[in-house]
Write a structure and sequence with these properties.
Number of strands: 29
Largest sheet: 7 strands, mixed
Shape: flat
Number of helices: 8
């Protein structure tokens, strides 16, 4: 046998490393025919293999941290993103828009001012959050009632900090969860100077010269931020003895989102006055700092966008990076619109804490985030999302001999499986409901489940236009099921129409017409208008014309549609998601699966059509 004097260095497994060391030693004349397992040398080989394995693992992890795709530590991901010129999004403070009314028992001054940083409080789940107006609010009135409209108030803990500039000094904001959008930086020449020079945040070197009073922010360890100032060439320099004054808000993250009842907690603007607060837009926008997954996704795309919005991906990247409230974003050019509208870019954003953006949020995206990055000749327009709510009726069969769980417990397991599928695969613009995939997940959710029969119905809420004869054009993209017969493949909730106090409904006749009807005294269907609209079953389009609604009979005006396929897709402004309030689950013990040959005659069949 030829002597093995080479070591295989390709192994990372502990046992393989030890085996390679043995093979190497067996190739030496001193250890031929040596019993490694029965000697103390085996312990030494364990130590060598352990040390080699430990170092290999450490080196592998260290090398992974050198690359954005494989890094797992936040510090490493942030550092690598920094090399791409990307600063991860900071925490965001929730903000709300309110109207403020000040009522004075006696005639007051012509102008009333609510000072900056006056507190407004709101309580959610037993915890009180404080909001502040960042600028003074003034109102004029008839000396007894003063009105302030559309004031913005921001939640958070307001803090200040001072740095004295030194040679090679570092200026680190000493708090985590700082909202960098609220950061204000002012510099004094000395601690006793009465003049302050305001420095503004910059994300680029292009426009910075020796007189530009700008600063840059970089994230460092533990989620803290460091301020970096210019050197007198790129950005105005600061000098030893100068004093840096900063103030900012520390966010409570997403906890205050949804606050809609506020009380003014500051000093009365007028002695004896009563200050009432009315919500225009509830609190929204509070969010955690950008997570690792998002940084990995956005950093290379931000680098590719080069701080300008040209392609649809540029728009998405900029919005995801600078608008924390965005949960999912769709962007398409006007040339791809139906019908085409050249010179426009259409943007649809689903926020995290609501179903659509407020008017103020739309304005912020267009006039603050995109205004300096958008191509001048292209006009961005923000549209509201449309929701395809998928109502599921799920019957689950299980073998009672293979589980100790009750039918109710199995139903709850299936419900959570469906919710998880909704979270993972849907609720975004490119989400596709795949019936077979969900069916497999349901079957695999509990070992005793033998099969399931899950039917699908698409529900769509319609915003009614009251007291006018209006058109409602609905494009659900998905083909609509029909057999050519009136089988209620399309039907709506109840409405009241002009000239009648009876609840009316709409459905289709199976051959392309929408009908308006009500239920007669004998529970028969009385057709009022047999062609109030048309249906294109193949294209998935419902066009209702001249419908004069005076009121709705339910909480919402909804249309339900049986799709031709149980796979549901979305396009443009549409988001497919499971309607959790219209989810029906039944668990049935399948005695045929338990081996009872007589049980087939009592098998509980369910229909495969919704």
């Amino acid at each position: 046998m030829a002597a093995n004097k080479k070591i295989n260095i390709a192994e990372l497994d502990f046992d393989a490393i030890k085996a390679n060391l043995k093979e190497f030693l067996k190739g030496q004349s001193e250890f031929q025919d040596y019993d490694f397992e029965g000697s103390g040398l085996s312990v030494l080989l364990d130590i060598l293999a352990y040390n080699t394995h430990y170092n290999a693992l450490y080196d592998n992890l260290a090398v992974n941290e050198l690359f954005l795709d494989s890094a797992v530590k936040r510090n490493s991901v942030v550092s690598l993103a920094k090399m791409l010129g990307y600063t991860p999004r900071s925490a965001k403070c929730a903000s709300a828009q309110v109207n403020i009314q000040i009522s004075s028992p006696i005639a007051g001054p012509s102008v009333v001012i609510i000072p900056a940083l006056s507190p407004f409080t709101s309580t959610i789940d037993g915890k009180t959050y404080t909001f502040y107006n960042r600028e003074p609010l003034s109102a004029t009135g008839p000396n007894t009632v003063y009105q302030i409209n559309n004031a913005t108030i921001v939640e958070g803990q307001y803090l200040t900090y001072r740095f004295t500039v030194t040679e090679n000094g570092r200026y680190i904001i000493p708090n985590s969860n700082v909202d960098l959008d609220t950061l204000r930086v002012r510099v004094q020449e000395t601690a006793t100077s009465s003049e302050f020079q305001t420095f503004t945040s910059s994300t680029s070197l292009v426009d910075a010269d020796s007189s530009s009073r700008v600063y840059w922010v970089k994230e460092i360890d533990d989620g803290l931020y460091e301020l970096v100032f210019g050197d007198g060439v790129l950005g105005a320099a600061i000098f030893p003895g100068n004093v840096i004054n900063i103030d900012y808000f520390v966010s409570s993250l997403d906890a205050p989102n949804g606050a809609r009842v506020f009380q003014y907690s500051g000093s009365p603007p007028i002695d004896g006055a009563v200050t009432n607060v009315f919500v225009v837009n509830p609190a929204s926008g509070g969010d955690s700092p950008e997570d690792i997954k998002s940084i990995k996704f956005n950093a290379p795309r931000s680098y590719a966008a080069q701080n300008r919005a040209v392609t649809t991906e540029d728009y998405k990247t900029i919005i995801y990076n600078q608008f924390a409230e965005a949960k999912t974003v769709a962007v398409w050019g006007g040339e791809d619109n139906n019908p085409p509208v050249y010179g426009k870019t259409y943007i649809c954003i689903r926020p995290k804490s609501a179903t659509k953006l407020t008017n103020q949020q739309k304005s912020d995206v267009v006039n603050t985030i995109l205004v300096s990055k958008n191509v001048v000749s292209v006009i961005p327009e923000i549209l509201d999302p449309e929701y395809l709510n998928i109502a599921l009726d799920c019957t689950v069969y299980y073998n009672p001999r293979e589980t100790i769980r009750s039918g109710k417990e199995i139903e709850e397991i299936v419900r959570q499986t469906i919710f998880q599928y909704d979270d993972d695969d849907l609720q975004r613009f490119d989400g596709v409901f795949r019936h077979s995939k969900l069916s497999r997940l349901i079957d695999a959710s509990e070992a005793s489940i033998t099969n399931n029969n899950t039917t699908v119905l698409i529900r769509r809420k319609i915003a009614p236009r009251y007291n006018v004869s209006a058109q409602y054009l609905l494009n659900i993209v998905n083909p609509i099921y029909t057999t050519g017969l009136a089988q209620n493949n399309i039907y709506t909730t109840g409405i009241f129409v002009a000239g009648s106090d009876i609840v009316h409904y709409l459905d289709d006749d199976g051959v392309g017409n929408m009908r308006l009807y009500y239920i007669g005294p004998s529970a028969d269907k009385i057709i009022v208008n047999p062609s109030i609209g048309v249906v294109d079953y193949a294209a998935g389009i419902v066009n209702i014309k001249n419908l004069h609604i005076t009121a709705i009979a339910d909480i919402d005006f909804e249309i339900s549609i049986r799709p031709s396929s149980y796979d549901v897709v979305s396009a443009y402004t549409q988001i497919a998601e499971i309607a959790r309030d219209h989810l029906t689950i039944r668990a049935i013990a399948d005695e045929t699966a338990a081996g009872d040959l007589r049980a087939g005659k009592n098998y509980q069949h369910t229909t495969s059509r919704s």
